[in-house]
Amino acid sequence: MSAMTRHIERREPATVMRLGRLGSLHQCRLSFMRVLTRRMAREKWTFSCNAFEISEEGVGHAVYTAQGPERVYSLVAFAHDLPPEKRSDRVIAEAWDATFALFDGVPARQDIERLSRNVPLQEAGRVQETELSLSRANRSVRLWKHVVDRLACGQQPDPEQIASVGYLMRTTAVYGSGKFGAADRELIADREELQAPFQVEMLSVYLTRCFVRDLVEYMARIQGGEQAVRLEPQIARKLGIGNSTGLGMAPFIVNHPILFNNWIMAREEALAAVRSVETATGEQIVLFRELFERSRHSVMAWHSEHPVQIRKLHDLKRDIALVSEYLEQNSLETAFPWDQLIRWTSEELSEEGQELIVSLVLEPYGDLVDGYAACMADSNSEAFVIDGSMTVAELRTLIQSNFGWALELDWSAAENCARAWYVSEEKLEPRLGERFEEPIADYEQPLAPARDAAIAYADLREWDDKCLVAEFLLQKPEHRHTVRRARMILDAPYGEIRDNTISASVLPIDMLRAKLSFFGATHFDPRSDRWVRICMYAGAPYPEELSEDNADLWVYPEVPQ
Amino acid sequence: MSYSLNEVEATAKRAARGAGYSWGLSEEAGKATRWLCAHGLDGVGALCVLLEQGLADDLLPNAPQDLSSNRNSQRKICPLLAGAALSDFSAQRELPVSMQKLAVPMLILPFVASVARRLRLCLVVNCGDAVFSTDGVRLRAAGVLPEKAGEVTITAGDITGDETAICTRASPSAESWDLLNSFARRTYAPATEESRLRGAGAGLSDND
Predict the structure, then answer these.
(1) What is the pLDDT of residue B64?
(2) Does A385 touch chain B (CB under 8 A)?
(3) pLDDT > 70 fraction of chain A, expressed in percent and rounded
(4) Mapping DSSP to helix (H, G, I), strand (E, B) and coil, where does residue B49 land?
(5) Which of A506, A550, B26, B55 gives the lowest tally of CB atoms within 10 Å of its CB?
(6) Do residues A430 and B197 lie in contact, with contact meaning Cβ atoms separated by under 8 Å?
(7) CA B184, B80, A466: angle at the middle one, nearest 5?
(8) Which residues of B touch A89 (CB under 8 A)?
(9) Selection from A242, A181, A233, A249 nearest residue A209 by Cα
């Protein structure tokens, strides 16, 4: 990689870190699901179902085990009989169709007994250091019933119904990193297989998908007896796991600026490396064209009823038609074909289309791109420490470089601070409220770094250039979080969102999508401006099918011949 | 009951905020409490003792302008503010540093450790009969720190005493964990039906 000349710079943070663009990101080679499936295939992980003790009513537990080269992990799944009136994807729900914990090792009887008293309660229960994640899922009522009914009478489900929903169950929260008593991230971060971000959560969902397939086949067998059949593998493979994500995820990318920087930086570095490729081989061009066709197919199957996403999908389809024309007219055999293509997209396509092509040009270059996955975690705990010997002049420059756009904004104007982020007493759920209509301002969370930077900057006017930040903070401790961020961002140019996160027009779904795209999610379907449904692992091989041949490009559906 | 260190840090941060500290100092409180628990000390109990003293309401007069000349003041110094200042001024200030009437001296230890890490020094904290020394990673302790306030001197020195246990979990008393949570609760907006619907943007059926 180092031998290659890199003449293309990364895209500017001012371009990349706008909410509109972050809300148009697509999965790519660096997505955490694909990092995991590639690793499991490469390292020849083995999988087994160690227990499946489910009653005819569909109540009980199952254990799925994943064995890697050094360690073993087990999904402990509990199936429940949930009355429809209790089915809610909201975090305030108190019961679910299924609940899960990812166990570090193989659970003994007494572990399962302990988990059975806690995992079904989710936030109201407690787990411990042997548990790496805690999660739950609800059925897609419509598709679940259809699939059970069909399989029970010996038929396969209707492919159109499968395509229109995409999953049998959707997770509504996957908690990791010390939540509710689980093991801290720090405890497992040095394990090679968990070094990349969210590998625990991605493994949990991967095994959950397998359990859900087995459960639906089992329920069909209970209902249909002898005549019941199993899902045909190619139909089962189309089923992903849905996910319903609300505001809880939005603060994450603000609260973890270095981690978020590392994700964006990895993708931007990878893009710059690919744009610097002088000539593409025939094989690389063929792969790019094939995956473009396959992602066109995926976009055609992407539905949403939300007006914002309907408009974006409309633009994206137009973009795809334009790219098709481009690819008919351009052989990609010219010098710097990918740079040329990216430059063209930035002038001709919507942000949805631009970001789709960014993700696609990375595909033929696993050798240039995949290594960046190792740089996506945040292991720099010392970045928390403020350098008090920095001068006031240096601090001003730092704030200007990140928040120049925000310093001139009138932050007292209602439209610029219409919203406030707060935490509700109810299950500590993060929410977004109307500052001037609800009594929430006193509870505001520090999720408007641009506004806070502008206030600190204004206070700095009265301070001499040569004064130390240490002196400033002793008198103005209210700016301590802003100064800390400014210092962190010095080495993390993509750490700050360059938009107003409390404006009257902010769309929290943009923040959700930015994060979910790095998970590898597809088919974003906003259900309002503040929660979104997605699909995970649709098209992926199941554990018993996983091989190096199918571990990576499964996210692009095969185009029917 | 045992808690993960992330739970401790998150709850401590919220509790400090609930007690009136700025967000930045609350972040320090979270990290400091976590560090103490990770080194086998009762960080949760210590933070509770501090928050109950209510120093956050009147923080600026407590600002340790000159950490060694607090002798005439009746006021206690807040260890979060003093610790943050100790860390911020670490490149400027010469050792030893003394602090009079430092509230909950245990809470200065994580800041001393952070400075020790950065300066690549071993630092020794003397307070009454207690001597704590740290190179930033390990912590060695001899004697018991006064709970509410004391005079603290920080010098460069050798690491001595019994090494405290490195812990991956915290086991605070139920009483102090509840107290910490009651401070944290002050940062949560009361739930209303309106916020339940508007604030999270729900309203569609999930039975589909």
Answers:
(1) 63
(2) yes
(3) 99
(4) helix
(5) A550
(6) no
(7) 125
(8) 206
(9) A242
pLDDT at A3 over 50: no
List chain A residues with CB under 8 Å of B59: 477
pLDDT at position B61 = 64
SS3 content of chain A, % helix, strand, coil (to 5): 50, 15, 35
A307 C-beta neighbours (distance < 10 Å), count: 9
User: Tell me: the pLDDT tens digits for A22-70?
Assistant: 999 999 999 999 999 999 999 999 999 999 999 999 999 999 999 999 9
Residues of B in contact with A531 (CB under 8 A): 200-202
Vertex A36 angle, CA A30 and A37, to 5°: 105
Mutant choice from B3, B6, B28 vs A, greatest count of A C-beta within 10 A: B6
Please report the ipTM that was assigned to this predicted complex.
0.94
Measured CA to CA, the distance from residue A210 to residue B93 in angstroms comes to 60
Cβ–Cβ below 8 Å for A529 and B87: no
- Tell me whether A242 touches chain B (CB under 8 Å): no
- Residue B2: the pLDDT is 95
Contacts B198 to A, Cβ<8 Å: 433-434, 438
Any CB–CB contact under 8 A between A59 and chain B? no
Cα distance from A431 to chain B (closest Cα, Å)? 5
Is A94's Cβ below 8 Å from some Cβ in B?
no
Nearest-Cα distance to chain B for A285, in Å, is 42
Say if the Cβ atoms of A182 and B4 lie within 8 Å: yes
Specify burial of residue A102 (Cβ count, 10 A radius: 0-12, 13-18, 19+).
Answer: buried
Class of residue A4 by CB neighbours under 10 A (exposed 0-12, middle 13-18, buried 19+)? exposed
The string of pLDDT tens digits covering residues A432-462 is: 999 999 999 999 999 999 999 999 999 999 9
For an interface test with A, give the residue of B195, B196, B198 to mutate (most A CBs within 10 A).
B195
Q: What angle do CA A410, A413, A414 make, to 5 degrees?
A: 150
- Contact check, Cβ <8 Å, A179/B185: no
Q: How does strand A419-424 pair with strand B188-189?
A: parallel
Count other C-beta atoms under 10 Å from residue A55's C-beta.
10
Q: With an 8 Å Cβ cutoff, are B89 and A388 in contact?
A: yes
Please name every residue paired with A525 in a beta bridge, in sequence order, or none if there are none. A533
A10-20 residue pLDDT tens:
999 999 999 99
**DSSP-assigned letter for residue B195:** I
Name the residue facing A477 among B6, B22, B203 (closest C-beta). B22
Q: Which residue from B7, B81, B191 is facing A477, i.e. has the nearest CB? A: B81
Q: Give me the residues of chain B with pLDDT under 70, please.
A: 60-74, 197-205
Higher pLDDT, A219 or B95: A219
pLDDT band at A110 (very low <50, low <70, confident <90, very high): very high
A470 → closest Cβ in B89, B114, B199: B89
B185 with B51: CB under 8 angstroms?
A: no
Q: Where do we find the tokens 């641009």? A: A450
Chain A nearest-CA distance from B131, in A, is: 25
Other C-beta atoms within 10 Å of A308: how many?
A: 15
Q: Show the tokens assigned to B68.
A: 């060694």
List all residues 6 or more positions away from B128 whose beta carbon is below 8 Å from its beta carbon.
B143, B145, B146, B150, B151
CB contact under 8 A, B200 and A531: yes
**A380-439 pLDDT, tens digit each:** 888 999 999 999 999 999 999 989 999 999 999 999 999 999 998 887 888 999 999 999
More confident residue, A4 or A481: A481
Among candidates A560, A545, A534, which has minimal Cα distance to A171?
A534
The answer to whether A436 and A414 have CB atoms below 8 angstroms apart is: yes
**How many CB atoms are located within 10 Å of the residue A52 CB?**
16
Q: Cα separation of A408 and A104, whole Å? A: 51
